[in-house]
Amino acid sequence: MAKQSLLEGKRILVTGAARGLGRDFAQAVAEAGAAVVMADILSDLVQQEAEKLAENNLVVYSVTIDLSQKQSIQQAVQQTVALLGGLDGLINCAALATGVGGVDMMAYDETLWDRVMNINVKGTWLVSQACVPHLKASGQGKIINIASDTALWGAPNLMAYVASKGAIISMTRSMASELGADNICVNTISPGLTLVEATTYVPQSRHDLYVNGRAIQRQQLPQDINGTAIYLLSDLSSFVTGQNILVNGGFVFN
User: Which of 161, 201, 210, 231 does the annotation list as catalytic?
Assistant: First the structure.
């Protein structure tokens, strides 16, 4: 089966899609045949990115979403379903990653901690909650939650982010247990440090740590993750649920 047809007829929502991993997920999923809605709080940017993809004869739309506001989430999902005529899959990629580290646990700001948890964990739950009725109606719904391999090796000076991604992995398992009866598969992808806008602030020493510690010793790119996402959204993975799939070149193992 050709990659271009793996998601033919699928309707997919991608959050955090204005840039970085989310933007690349949206492009890859659309190129695999799906109709895609790109959602982000950066409304102008996500609209521009969606229009660029649509110019290449891909079926791509955009909506605005604020993961800190339940009403915004519900409205974005409603708009998505109206645009696509239903929903078959969701990639929860939106998260706070830039500017959330660099200090140890004793000096970490409590307000920032709460904001990271509110966006990364609660926001992922609320988006999933809003999508579940539509995914159930599709007959074979798929949810992919994006975590991080930092949750497995405990990256220092990044505690709120690491804790939030550990929560994503655990929440995925609970969601999978609950939603299996509705024929909805829920899985996690945990990338390693990837070259995107959100990681430009990361010190070179941390990049070197990753590259030198990987079985495949090179920088990780967004396209390294796309194939796993397409697989998990496709019918090929219809008996795969509750899993955390590491895509990090062998830096750390499950």
Answer: 161
- CA pair distance 67, 118, nearest whole angstrom: 8
Strand ranges (E), the chain: 11-15, 35-40, 60-64, 89-92, 141-146, 184-191, 244-247
Using alpha carbons only, give the angle 156, 248, 65 rounded to the nearest 5 degrees. Answer: 80
Q: Does domain 3-246 have CATH number 3.30.70.420?
A: no
DSSP 40-56: ES-HHHHHHHHHHHHTT
- Reported as a pLDDT band with limits 50, 70 and 90, residue 50 is very high
Query: Strand 89-92 and strand 60-64: pairing?
Result: unpaired
**Catalytic residue status for 161:** yes
Taking all residues of the chain, what is their mean pLDDT, rounded to a whole number?
A: 93
Find where tokens 């995914």 sit.
135
137-162 confidence digits (pLDDT tens): 999 999 999 999 999 998 888 899 99
Per-residue confidence (pLDDT) for residue 28, from 0 to 100: 97
Residue 174 is which amino acid? Answer: S
